[in-house]
Amino acid sequence: MKYIYIKTWGCQMNEYDSSMITTFLEKTKKYLITKEAEKADILILNTCSIREKAQEKVFHQLGRWKKLKNKKPDVIIAVGGCVATQEGKEIFKRANYVDIVFGTQTLHKLPKMIDKIEKKRQFIIDISFPQLEKFNYSLKTKTTGYTASVSIMEGCNKYCSFCVVPYTRGHEISRPSDDVLLEISILAENGIKEINLLGQNVNAYRGRTFNGKICFFSELLRLVSEIDGIERIRFTTSNPLEFSDDIIEVYQDTPKLVSFLHLPVQSGSNRILQLMKRSYTTEEYETIIEKLISARPNIQISSDFIVGFPSESEEDFQKTINFIKKINFDMSFSFIYSSRPGTPASEMKDNIDLKEKKKRLYTLQNCINKQTMSWSRKMLKSIQSVLVEGISKKNIMELYGRTENNRIVTFKGSHHMIGKFIKLKIKEVHTHSLKAELI
Ligand code: SAH
Ligand code: F3S
User: Fold this and answer.
1) pLDDT, tens digit, 9 for 90 and up, residues 7-61
2) Do 185 and 320 have their domain in common?
3) How far apart are CA 381 and CA 122, in angstroms?
4) Which of 112, 304, 368, 384 lies deepest, with the highest CB count within 10 Å?
5) Taking every annotated instance into account, which residue ranges of this chain make up the domain TRAM (predicted)?
6) Ligand nearest to the CA of 50
């Protein structure tokens, strides 16, 4: 048996890909996963290039692994994910001790690539886009816990001016609906209660059905809700652009779909949205939210924001703050704009200085945090359905779980509740968690 160590950076899609890599390699019965890099025979780095100095971070990490390889020359180093797809052969040029470069769509080829290297030491690279092929090699059925993510589509055709995803993940492609449903059914049989449908733009899902028709996202959501054992459905990420009425209707008739939606708006200024090439206005976004509220009055919305996009003025930024207050977002992932090589926005002058960007980010996060807290306070004394995940890490006398709106709740309960949905009354509200009691 040989030991494999995998380091994963980036989004949930990368996490999902890494779990697929684990499945592919373990299936060969030749490899075991280890949590210690020093023990590994094969080191795999699954990279992310969405922000910051992604390339530099990769080469720093590889530098550390070079030291391990110096001690143990037979170690194989493989680099995959978005930086690998973007940099390709450049990786070997800067780090000639790397053996394999694989892309976001070629992970299923890793076991064969490793075999080849073991027979003959030479660089191997495959960053092609054989779309969906990786899904044919294994359904992801092994999980721990009671929630699981399932990829339903990959890639993006939207080409927002700041974003590298269309270049690193390829064009939108949906998995056939039966494959997705089969994977979820097996997960449900193995005890999974909550499913998170994954994709760069899940609402653009158009999967082939067994009889050659197209299954849209709204239909897929209803089909997943029919699967016995699945009691809660989430999805990430969706885009305001194709958030059509048929999807909003699902909120009316499918209670398993959570009353919590992550719908990234990025900015509250129409001028900036246009420069970002987001293809919607704040007014259109607001209309979607109004419709959602009439379908699901208690829905909570979270978003992604970018501050300091080229030419963003104080006035544009203020519009974002006003919009955050108007929509009353519950949470956000907010980022400082980072120029990405090869994107159209990288040709615009990155003219806001870092100090100002940081100031805007701080103001924005402060505003959202206040709203998060006020949403949490509204939950005081309410009854919540909580999926109990296990024993609290802070206090072994307590259990913890998650509410529909993604809050961690701790409470005193008994072990047989783990893995079940339990109704709890919220009795204390803290910044990062809630305390509750059984009713
Ligand atoms: N499909 C999603 C976005 C996926 S990328 C959507 O439609 O919004 C995840 C988040 O990373 C984006 O929402 C954006 O806020 C952030 N991001 C992407 N590129 C960025 C960049 N160049 N600089 C800063 N943040 C960026
Ligand atoms: Fe990126 Fe825009 Fe697609 S943010 S993932 S190009 S929707």
Assistant:
1) 999 988 999 999 999 988 988 889 999 999 999 999 999 999 998 778 889 999 9
2) yes
3) 64
4) 368
5) 377-439
6) 1
pLDDT tens-digit readout, 367-422: 999 999 999 999 999 999 999 999 999 899 999 999 999 999 999 999 999 999 99
Q: Domain total for the chain?
A: 3
Question: Does residue 148 sit in the same domain as residue 81?
Answer: no
- Annotated ligand binding at 48? The verdict is yes
Tokens 């194989």 identify what position? Answer: 76
| Residue at a domain's end among 361, 378, 395 | 378
CA distances from 11 to 256, 367, 435 (A): 25, 25, 29
- Please state the pTM of the whole predicted model: 0.93
Return the bridge partners of 56, or none. none
Is there a single domain that holds both residue 195 and residue 294? yes
How far apart CA 399 and CA 363 sit, in angstroms, is: 35
Question: Where among 126, 146, 166 does a domain terminate?
Answer: 126
142 — pLDDT class (breaks 50, 70, 90)? low
Domain of residue 419: give its range. Answer: 380-438
Q: Is the minimum distance from the CB of 163 to ligand 2 under 6 angstroms?
A: yes
50 lines ligand 1 (CB under 6 A): yes
